[in-house]
Design goal:
With about 270 residues, this protein is an alpha+beta fold. It contains five helices and 16 strands. α1 packs antiparallel against α5.
């Protein structure tokens, strides 16, 4: 009978440890999955869609406010929750941290941009794609147009990028805004007739990386831009996943008490 009890306890111990190990693996997996991308000190939490930067600032992912109808209401909703529009210094520092290829200054009245064009070979480790992974993107759908009568043909692929409004420090913080754009190049194919001569051309339209000062953007109306919202990094500590660990400890303690009552130690030898 004692031998049979020992076998049962060994079986229970094995399954207990499997359960504890499984719980710890689940906790670790959830912790890892919460951070989908990290670049040069910028870290995205894919659950909150908030990016923390190395300077103690949180950025709301730009795609969170894309394709909205009421810009002013959205602005008020977020600013009442502690967000504010990024200023020119923060935006120029952000772009410079991604090493796009030029040095952006913080002057709110200047426009600075560069064109990118890598054709059909996409480098998913390029600054453009890493930025869009972090801050999100919108897609302008491509199209195909054909007119057999005139011989005109147009084909344009999807355009992937993001544009966000940020503060113009020379004026009211929301009356007139600056804009930031990050977009990839995209394919085109055109056929058309001009003066009896047929033209057939294809290639890639340039992508644009730019900060547009005095752009004249405002919150009154509809457009396809997003907001570049920032706020001070939250100092609230994230609670540790103690629930499963406490459950495992209580379960372990109960098992130890049970085994002691019937005369067998969990980690010791059988008592004679």
């Amino acid at each position: 009978m004692i031998k049979s009890m020992n076998r049962k306890l060994c079986y229970l111990k094995r399954n207990l440890f499997k359960g504890i190990f499984g719980a710890l693996v689940c906790v670790a997996s959830n912790t890892v999955n919460a951070e989908i991308i990290f670049h040069n000190g910028y870290q995205l939490d894919n659950e909150s869609n908030i990016i923390s930067d190395p300077y103690g600032i949180e950025w709301l992912r730009w795609s969170e406010t894309s394709n909205i109808k009421d810009l002013y209401k959205t602005y008020l909703d977020y600013t009442s929750d502690g967000w504010q529009l990024a200023n020119n210094f923060q935006m120029s520092r952000l772009f410079n941290d991604f090493n796009f290829g030029i040095e952006f200054d913080e002057d709110p009245s200047t426009t600075q941009y560069l064109r990118i064009n890598d054709g059909p070979i996409e480098n998913l480790n390029s600054p453009t794609w890493i930025f869009l992974e972090l801050f999100g993107s919108t897609t302008t759908k491509g199209y195909v147009y054909s007119d057999e009568e005139t011989g005109r043909y147009e084909e344009v692929s999807d355009k992937i990028g993001i544009t966000a409004m940020f503060a113009d420090d020379y004026t009211d913080r929301y009356q007139y805004l600056n804009t930031a754009t990050v977009s990839d190049d995209y394919f085109f194919h055109y056929k058309y007739s001009d003066g009896g001569e047929l033209f057939d051309t294809e290639g890639y339209h340039d992508g644009i990386i730019g900060l547009y000062g005095a752009s004249g953007a405002d919150l009154f109306g509809e457009n396809d831009t997003s907001f570049a919202f920032v706020r001070a990094l939250s100092t609230t500590e994230v609670p540790e996943p103690k629930g499963l660990l406490l459950f495992a400890l209580f379960f372990f303690a109960g098992f130890q008490i049970l085994s002691a009552k019937i005369g067998i130690k969990l980690f010791g030898a059988h008592r004679q």
